[in-house]
Design brief:
- By secondary structure, the protein is an alpha+beta fold.
- The chain has two domains: 164 residues, no CATH class; 88 residues.
- It is built from five helices and eleven strands.
- The strands form two sheets. Strands 2-6-7-1-5-4-3 form a seven-stranded antiparallel β-sheet.
- A hairpin with a 2-residue loop joins strand 4 and strand 5.
- Helix 2 packs antiparallel against helix 3 and helix 4 runs antiparallel to helix 5.
- 16% of the residues are buried.
Amino acid sequence: MIKTLRVRLYPNTEQMVLLEKHFGACRFVYNHFLEVRKKYYSEHRNERKKRLSVFDTMKMLTDLKKDLTWLNEVNSQSLQHSLVEVDKSFRSFFRHNGSYPNFKSKKGNQYFIVPSGFKAEGNKLILPKFRYGIKYMDKSAIPKNVKQIVITRDVDRYYASIQHESNEELPKGNGTTGIDMGVKAFLTTSDGMQIEPLNAYRKMEKKLKREHRRLSRKKKGSNNRKRHIVKLQKIYQNISDARTDFNHKVSTAIAKRYDIVVIEDLNLTSA
């Protein structure tokens, strides 16, 4: 079973710069070779070799790094994994399991993948190119049998999602229940247990409206506006954190109490 341990990273200023270089370089490689593969297919679609393989693009990446030397500042395996992602996106599309691949944006989720070459020493996570390691804070030790690490940024926070193999069995209850998702109550089980909604957004709604009004008065392109955007992002980040924590606690409590859970198929989100 594959499990994920998510820990928060505390990089210093130099490490933050290098993390941002990794985000940007991996995004650039993804977008560059997405365009390369699109162009190749349009020009060779009627030929025997109509598509580039991931190995073709890896050879092309080696040549590209000779021209764009700044790519050498970034972990080569992370750059290669961006090519694997492009390949997966195209395979999924041609198998009718996904939409046509889109270019990645600076405004989207920022992440890069470290497939190997990592280790933990004390309270530091050692990654390729990060010679002294990045500090992390978590009560859990870094597990063994790590498959890969995904580094992400959420506003001004950095995280490492450590994917690893585990033989640990999930806790199981010994009962059966049906769950009804509602509006007044977050959920109600068939044996009468009710869980009230978190209402994380509603609790912050007045503050959000006030901060949005203040943002509208800031001059576009100014540093004050940029700082205020970050302030708003942090509020939304806190709402998201509260929802995630709430959902984890509810799902864990249900898993420990019941062995079989039946739930209606509705697209509802918690407030």
